[in-house]
Amino acid sequence: MWSQINLIFFVVLLLLVGASVVGKLLKNKYGEENSTIANLVLRINAWWVMVSVLYIAFVCGRIGVTILFSFISFVALREFMTVIYQKCYDHSMVVCLYLLLPIQYYFVLVQWYGMFSIFIPVCGFLLLPIVGSLSGNTEQFLARTAKIQWIAMICIFCISHVPALLFLNLEGFQSENNILLVIFMLTTVQASDVLQYIWGKLIGGTKIMPGLSPTKTISGTVGGVISATFIAILMSPITPFSYWQAGLVGFIICIIGFLGGLVMSAIKRDYGVKDWGKMVSGHGGILDRMDSICFSAPIFFHILRYYWSG
């Protein structure tokens, strides 16, 4: 397993080195005042940090991956709440941050699928409006409750499906290799995002949804999804999938990731913000990098559990 993980990260390392060299050359040619080149360099530098953090988490195994994504959920919650609750405060926020989040990731860590799968959608769904009602504030109560329930689903429940991949028991696939499934999903979805950006810049053309995402083009979306699907096919040997199955699953999670990105963009546009935060230089906030994964991770998890489970 570790030989495969190291090979994948070595390939990613080579790509980052190449990207850094290209970014340096473009910066020298066009100057630091070029905003597009400056943003590209920031994105590349941020990817160095993100890939390094991921590798360290993978080295630490199931506990390291669970801790990393619980931290990502915590930051994502803070970013989402900062945007949604710009002018008001709701006590349910404390419940999300300091009760629902640690309990959900505890169920991931102890591999308790039954509670993991129902805790947020059932217990959290009922608990949050109860806590909200105890404040006695009835102004826009239904809207406030729906917002906090949505935040819990996206930032805790959906993201927790990434480390939950590690406790799946798949037919003909050793459970200690499940970390390769995390790599497959993250690489495919993130490659789709990056390649959509690259193809869109190279080809340009008609905007696919200008009201939601002004930078996404039809050519970029199609090119990115197809390219990422091809990458998923290449990664078939590290998964329980055949080549055509890897391509199909990769295509599905890329499409779901793209649609998830549009949903999260719609929320940002509704609240008049460009990015969820400023934590990741060149990328915005954690949620700006996780938006597609929030939607694709649960779909990928349940495809595996229902069609490949031993």
Fold and architecture overview:
With 310 residues, this protein is mainly α. It has one domain. 75% of the residues lie in helices and 0% in strands. It is built from 11 helices and no strands. α1 packs antiparallel against α2 (35-59) and α10 runs antiparallel to α11 (286-307). The longest helix has 29 residues, at 2-30. It is globular. This is Phosphatidate cytidylyltransferase. The chain crosses the membrane at residues 47-77, 89-107, 113-136, 148-167, 179-199, 220-238, 244-265. It holds the Pfam family CTP_transf_1.
Radius of gyration using CA atoms only: 20 Å
Mean pLDDT: 85
Uncertain spans:
none
Count of alpha/pi helices: 11
Overall strand count: 0
Give helix % range.
Answer: over 70%
Along the chain, the helix and strand elements come as: HHHHHHHHHHH
Overall body shape: globular
**Main structural class:** mainly alpha
- The total domain count is 1
Biggest sheet details: none
DSSP strand content: under 5%
Oligomer state of the chains in this structure: single chain
Protein name: Phosphatidate cytidylyltransferase
GO cellular component, one term: plasma membrane
Keywords: Membrane, Nucleotidyltransferase, Transferase, Transmembrane, Transmembrane helix
GO biological process, one term: peptidoglycan-based cell wall biogenesis
